[in-house]
Amino acid sequence: MMQMIRCAAVLLACLAGCSALCGCAAGTSGEDSGSGLWLGIEPAKEDEFGKVTYADGIYLSQNVQEPVPDPYADDTEEKETGETGDGLRYTLYQRHAEITGHSDSFELEELDIPAEIGGLPVTRITDVALNEGSVFDLDRNGAFYSCYTLRRVNVPEGVREIGQYAFYGCKNLQEISLPESLMEIGTHAFSMCSSLKEMTVPSGIDKIGESAFSLTPWYDDLLYHRDLVIFNGRLYDAGRRCTGHITVPDYVVSVADYAFYSCEGLETVVLPASVKSVGKYAFCDCPDLYAVLFLNPECEIPEDASTLSNKVTGSDRDFYKGIIYGEENSTAQRFARRFDCRFESTADFFARMETWK
Q1: Which of 225, 249, 271 is where one domain is finished?
Q2: Angstrom distance (rounded) from CA 56 to CA 40
Q3: What is the pTM (predicted TM-score) of this model?
């Protein structure tokens, strides 16, 4: 089986270079960083003005970096709460501080989040609380929810997390500077920021929540001009150009929830051996999808029919009429058996490849 996987990897490289077959090109891997499937990547090329260029629609991070453990994960004992002169509410713990919200009178246009409060490093902008779990009933003073005056925000080095809905609905926010220390951006953190045009996602980002940037001009630009949106080896979204036969770059380590959701025109997908997991609804509502190749025999796949489905958006029943390709006794084969999908070998996929050109 390992010999088959090595052969498949060689064929995958050939496949990635075949512009007639692929909707997007695979990235170039550098030297192994020494941590399993985490790979170093050659720096993205720059034009004569120093601006990063793109390889056939793929957003390239300079490196795929392993997550940095949170040194404050065990620091959970609250010591003090308070409010700064600018109207920022905070909580102090024994070893770190968190920004929790803002006062009723908060009206800054330009905000520099403090790096320290009370001599303690600020490491988090917290989630906006959902009252009784309802997304329609949020704490309107939580984090910076719907702070209409904000136009520019600088988040200092040391902040590791921006929580869910933290900047939701900041309709006049145009620019935000994020630190390289940032590991996580929560669900809907920047949704509905309808003026947000400038942002750079940190190269080592570990998690980006669902719809974190939805309905922002910055993210819409990525979706309309890229085949795949990839940050630090995680494939988060398929762009509007993502149709036909797609080979996922061989440095991608995961495919996020909803990544190819409702991707009309998507026909075949090759997932390289580097992909360790596929998220929920990753290929849901893809009516034209007829072949998915899993080159990692241990890739984690949610046991849900909606993970891979040909139904159209709005239909009730998930179904898949295409073929799942992979190795014998792989997670892909088990998924196919579980949901009564047609399964064939990796060798069969490459044997049929010529007919799809």
Answers
A1: 225
A2: 20
A3: 0.81
